């Protein structure tokens, strides 16, 4: 980590700290934020967590999740906390533009930022930086960070479970972005008392009925396969959102089903939001969807998982995407 020693010394005195993570928070965002919050509180710091938008229900079992300040609805309160903060953690995102208005306020505040993240191409906005794109998740890095700050205390099992949550969700239950180091970290988490089966159950086997019906609908009615270019696309309209009462987080993971097909190398989940069309892209092997997201859809991400947005309608976005993919992948990659 850049400037780790300085940060370690800084944290020897109790501080006012704000932890932030990205919009549409996933398990890695919520897990890393709450794990770090509990750890820092145990070291007598005053700690708040703020996320730009609300998190999905399947992370509400984590202690402290009820106190997360959602920036969209608590602007004044969080701005005050920013004004008063000694340090701001930026977890699981690589540029202040990923947290919208809160990012603008943080940039203006001049409060030092500590970034811990695993996305490619980190922007230059942090005084302290732990950026490792080879890591499976920010939670994997949070484990390293906590262990480096405090080499002797045993890890609190609760903190371990929140770290394990982010690892599980960002690796699709240890299916991708895995490494020997990650499995060693997972082993150490389990040795610290993490109940892996319990976390798996809470995160993945706690769906309300409507989510499974929505998944069935997406696969049966909304899936298009383009075999020539090995692409699968699922689209959802505004009306689908109303009909299925889709809330934040309800569509999480649907895009991954497309990759179960032998003949699909690139998967796209394209949804009509109130103001924009959101794209979630996934891929296998050498197909780099972050290039598509950053070059054409004002987004970014990792080689095999990226996202972006479009401001033309749903149909025209899907057509644009098909055209781009056809040009780019008319010759198959590995
Ligand atoms: P998801 O498809 O789950 O929304 O996002 C997958 C990954 O793509 C995220 O972890 C993030 O790295 C990246 N991503 C998604 N949306 C955006 C976006 O609008 N901008 C950028 N820069 N990255 C995004
Ligand atoms: Mn992540």
Mean pLDDT: 96
Decide which structural class fits the backbone: alpha/beta
**What is the annotated CATH architecture of the largest domain?**
Alpha-Beta Complex
Gross morphology is globular
- In total, how many domains does the architecture comprise? 2
Rg estimate, integer Å: 20 Å
Strand content: 15-25%
Task: Chart the SSEs and their pairings.
Blueprint lengths: L3 H7 L5 E6 L5 H16 L3 E6 L17 E2 L4 H10 L2 E5 L8 H10 L3 E5 L10 E4 L6 H12 L7 H14 L9 H12 L4 H9 L4 H13 L1 E4 L4 E6 L1 H6 L10 H5 L7 E7 L4 E7 L5 H8 L3 E2 L3 E6 L3 H15 L6
Parallel strand pairs: 1-2, 1-4, 2-3, 4-5, 5-6, 8-9
Antiparallel strand pairs: 7-8, 9-10, 10-12, 11-12
The chain binds guanosine-5'-monophosphate and manganese (II) ion.
Short précis:
The protein has 13 helices and twelve strands.
How would you describe what is shown here?
The protein has 334 residues and is α/β, with parallel strands linked by helices. It folds into two domains: 4-204, inorganic pyrophosphatase (n-terminal core) (Alpha-Beta Complex); 209-328, Diaminopimelate Epimerase, Chain A, domain 1. The protein has helices at residues 4-10, 27-42, 75-84, 100-109, 138-149, 157-170, 180-191, 196-204, 209-221, 238-243, 254-258, 289-296, 314-328; strands at residues 16-21, 46-51, 69-70, 87-91, 113-117, 128-131, 223-226, 231-236, 266-272, 277-283, 300-301, 305-310. The strands form two sheets. Strands 3-2-1-4-5-6 form a six-stranded parallel β-sheet, with helices on both faces. Strands 7-8-9-10-12-11 form a six-stranded mixed β-sheet. Helix 3 (75-84) runs parallel beside helix 4 and helix 6 crosses helix 8. The chain is globular and about 60 Å long. The mean pLDDT is 96. It binds guanosine-5'-monophosphate and manganese (II) ion (MN). Guanosine-5'-monophosphate binds next to strand 11 and strand 12. The site of guanosine-5'-monophosphate (5GP) has 11 residues, from strand 11 and strand 12.
